[in-house]
Amino acid sequence: MTDNSDESRTRETSAETPDTRRGLHVFVDGCLEPGARHGGWAFVAYRDGIEIASGFGGAKDSSNNAMEVTAVLEAAIWINGSAADVAAVIWSDSAYAVEGCNSWRPIWRNNGWKKSNPTGKARNRAISDAKIWKAIDIQLSENSLISIAWCKGHSGADGNERADALADQGRRSIRRA
Questions:
Q1: Which helix (H) or strand (E) holds 132?
Q2: Distance (Å, whole) CA 19 – CA 35
Q3: Segment holding 172, helix H or strand E
Q4: Residues 6+ apart with CB under 8 A from 3
Q5: Mean local confidence (pLDDT), 158-174
Q6: Which three-class secondary structure state does DSSP give residue 147?
Q7: Diameter over CA atoms, the chain
């Protein structure tokens, strides 16, 4: 029997340079130009080591974390639309995105998309980028074949480097607009 629960996808997977020679691997990244607050996001999909798809974009008045999770969202949307029946790993160099997907998302969902306050001294606070997290939750809940894993950024992993360059391209496209 297969366990399709959120908890089954929380197994820690990480790598400095992931082996993408077999299966579907999607690398994601986000970036931000702090002064202008223009951000970019990107994903790059590889099947059996060959790039098969990519996407990128940008946003004004954003944050780096918002761009990192937007990249995860866009990758999950692509997977669900183009490869829903295939096990896929989304690789991110953002601990926030990976922990958010694998550990915090079920807690936030159960708390009405608010951070819990175990001390009880103050009300629960809304999570940052709740709209994006809710959309990620929908995409990941629809497909138990997607797992989220951490990879070390700027360590020579081709997919991570390509996603980084595309995210920067998305950020620059906002600056020119």
A1: helix 130-142
A2: 36
A3: helix 158-176
A4: none
A5: 95
A6: strand
A7: 52
In single-letter form, the type of residue at position 168 comes to: D
Q: Which two tokens stand for residue 158?
A: 């081709």
Is the pLDDT reported for residue 39 higher than 60? Answer: yes
Domain residue ranges in the chain: 6-176
Distance in angstroms (rounded) separating the CA atoms of residues 98 and 41: 15
pTM: 0.87
Q: In degrees rounded to 5, what are phi and psi of residue 2?
A: -95, 135
Q: How far from 65 is each of 80, 120, 132, 152, CA to CA, in Å?
A: 23, 27, 11, 16
Closest alpha carbon to 165 in 20, 44, 67, 37:
44
CATH number, domain 6-176, options 3.40.50.2300, 3.30.56.10, 3.30.420.10, 3.40.50.12370: 3.30.420.10
